[in-house]
Amino acid sequence: MRILWKPSGFFRRLLKVESDRITESESLIALAWTSLIQKLSKAPGVFLLDQRKRFSTMPEIETSRSHFELFSPPSDVRGMTKLDRTAFKKTVTIPVLKVRKEIVSKLMCSLKRVALQRPGIKRVVEDPEDEESRLIMLDPYKMFTDDSFEKAELGILKQLNVNPQISKYNLELTYENFKSEEVLRAVLPEGQDVTSGFSRVGHIAHLNLRDHQLPFKHLIGQVMIDKNPGITSAVNKINNIDNTYRNFQMELLSGEENMMTKVRENNYTYEFDFSKVYWNPRLSTEHSRITELLKPGDVLFDVFAGVGPFAIPVAKKNCTVFANDLNPESHKWLLHNCKLNKVDQKVKLFNLDGKDFLQGPVREELMQQLGPLSKERTHSVHIVMNLPAKAIEFLSSFRSLLDGQPCSSELLPIVHCYSFSKDASPAKDVQQRAEAVLGTCLDACSSVHLVRNVAPNKEMLCITFRIPAAILYKNQTLNLEKHEEPPLKRQRTEKSFSKEKT
After folding, report:
1. Coil, helix or strand for 89?
2. Which range, of 58-67, 302-311, 490-499, averages the lowest pLDDT?
3. 204-207/124-127 β-pairing
4. If you average pLDDT over every residue of the chain, what do you get?
5. Of 67, 163, 391, 428, which cross-links 385 as Cys (Cβ 3.0–4.6 Å)?
6. Cα gap 149→155, rounded to integer Å
7. How far apart are CA 379 and CA 314, in angstroms?
8. CB-based burial of residue 300 (10 Å sphere; 0-12 exposed, 13-18 middle, 19+ buried)?
9. pLDDT digits (tens, 9 = 90+) for 175-199
10. Are 132 and 205 in contact (CB under 8 A)?
């Protein structure tokens, strides 16, 4: 079936809009073409000659589904598990525009919309038949005929005395000309999810492959290295972060085994052995958010400091920082990074269990910070607990932590405690678990911030609250326990959470 019709005016614009919306996804292709046919069938002067719903913009050009597979790798690479770059060679026919070589630079700015944009392909090549001319490669998805030029483009062509006639050119594609997603979509079983994203940690691409991708893991790793400049190693996480030191086992998929890396985050530099410490580039925004909450002169206790993404930026703001991590490797690189960023004189380092840190150095410092002279204090005290899998359990260390008379409520420490939740109401779940450990209601003094979505139905959140004096001080805790009052009722906690989400 054909539509014997040459688009013009409104219909040409309609065809342009629909064709520009088409992506390489086959499902979207089908949807876009179906939508276009439905619109054309309702337009006056357009006739569908049969029910097969295929059409051509001109009798000599038939746009079919194969047109959108033009830049797909050869079909015989499907199922490849060991990367063979030579198997991706392919010759395609694309439209080109012949122009005089001296006007190429002037013309290219005006033809950005229709010029071909593919990895590793020059958009202007020599004309094999005329050394005084050049061929501008055009996007075959946008250029069906010379009528596909827009009015402004035709005006420039006329001004520069360029014939708008479109010619054909045989272009040889190689592995280098395909994007990583295109390579993996062609190789993996049809219909399977394609991995094209990863966490970048310096020169390392950190992937989290699914089971159906594992047979292709070494090929996937090599493609990530090939297609991402600066990446020289690709690793896959093979277990959850559930050990004492918060690092995970990883498998080298491709590239060099060097896990010593250097990263820049929020204008600070960090160096570490990625195989022995915890680092998540997706927490950059959260590190910045907490840093912005502190003012010069404030005090920060970082209970699970890692290699310093909270401690170092805060120290740079002329705050006093007490940073702790149980992992000896994290402690080593934390010290290194403090020196690297020139804040080693502002950060006191500890290599203790979180509970020992809270009940030792933190308690001692709080006794001084919140003592009799605390009325003269104008700075705030913050405690960061970034160990989402277990941090809430450590809140029990605050119960009856201090002796003496309570300080004023506005001077009490502010806690930022991280946690995961799979609950349907994650904010409420996190607050209730924190309340259960502390033994008090936090409605009046807490808020919950959504940090990020970790996995389907799994959120990472941060609950922030001032530690109630009744919990923090021994005498107050005893008085609280003597009252024979009914248990506190659980109340809604989603108000602050919903505000964060909006």
Report:
1. coil
2. 58-67
3. unpaired
4. 83
5. 391
6. 10
7. 14
8. buried
9. 999 999 999 999 999 988 887 679 9
10. no
